[in-house]
Amino acid sequence: MNSPILLRPIGQIRTPWKTLADCPSGPGRGGEEARLEILPEYAEALHALSASELDLLYWFDRAARDVLRSVSPHDGGERGVFAMRSPHRPNPVALSRVPLIAVEGHILVVGPLDCLDGTALLDIKPVSCGGRSTKA
User: Fold this and answer.
1) Could you tell me which residue ranges the TsaA-like domain spans (predicted)?
2) What is the DSSP letter of 135?
């Protein structure tokens, strides 16, 4: 269980947020569209993408990894990081569901995301009708 897991980004996320202080807390906040810049070697993986919503996995690379408890910005209560959506956690993997607005070649325009500009994009999964994600 201690063997490393190797993840390779498939692209990067472009948002207007340059600092943690600017970044909204929570997906869908901030009102600014995000752009997913897919690396050229993965562009073929976008072929026939037609979902109206996407589940995105991304890596909060600038988050603290040694935090186990934090104070919720929503109600001020202290919780373990597994009981909240804090970016600060042992493995700072983020998951957000966003609307797909447009496909522009190897760039996807999506709804607002709560991450800093340049965040590593790990995976994209289309949301099937009925709101359930497709199997991994």
Assistant:
1) 7-136
2) P
**pLDDT tens-place string over residues 50-91:** 999 999 999 988 888 899 998 887 888 999 999 988 888 899
Q: Which residue has the tokens 């890596």?
A: 59
102's torsion region: left (phi>0), alpha (psi -120 to 50) or beta? beta
CA nearest to 79, candidates 71, 87, 67, 91: 71
DSSP structure string for 22-82: TS-SSTT-S---EEEEE-GGGGGGGTT---SEEEEEEE-TTS-SS--EEE-TTT--EEEGG
Using alpha carbons, select from 43, 29, 48, 39 the residue that is nearest to residue 98: 29
Give the residue-averaged pLDDT of 103-123.
95
Chain-centre distance for alpha carbon 66: 20
